[in-house]
Design goal:
45% helix; 4-stranded parallel beta sheet; single chain; 6 helices; 11% strand
Length: 142
């Protein structure tokens, strides 16, 4: 999707994506739409029917939030290279993600695109501990 312009995504990919989301809607599980280098497509991802829009590490979460409706959650977006760089880089980067998420309802902390093979699991453990300790958990009210 990241190789497409917004117009091309809307014309060629969005109809099929919408059909997929509609086809699984009765399963009662959240639908997540993620693509790399898709900053300009985030609003269209939401419009296609996603409940959650994944954001890669290139787009700050506060900027991403302005592109999608508040009813759609965000997922992301720690740079996977920050984790590879070690705890001294990963922890401040994770704090920045949390800060940009602003403790708002609808943020799922995650890497901005998968765990790289050379990642030290101990660094990931420390990031998880930080997110649990410093991330704000906001529960939805029904």
């Amino acid at each position: 999707a990241g190789a497409l312009s917004p117009a091309d995504y809307e014309r060629y990919a969005m109809p099929a994506t919408r059909r997929v989301f509609e086809g699984v809607a009765d399963l009662g599980v959240p639908c997540i739409h993620f693509g790399v280098q898709t900053a300009e497509l985030l609003g269209l991802f939401a419009e296609a029917g996603a409940d959650v829009v994944g954001v890669d590490w290139r787009t700050p979460l506060d900027a991403a939030r302005t592109r999608i409706p508040p009813s759609v959650a965000l997922q992301g977006n720690l740079d996977p290279a920050a984790v590879v760089a070690g705890v001294d880089v990963a922890i401040p980067a994770a704090r920045d993600v949390l800060l940009r998420a602003g403790g708002a309802l609808g943020h799922i902390f995650n890497l901005g695109h998968g765990v790289l093979p050379e990642t030290d699991p101990a660094v990931l453990e420390q990031v998880v501990e930080l997110v649990h300790a410093e991330g704000k958990v906001v529960e939805a009210t029904s």
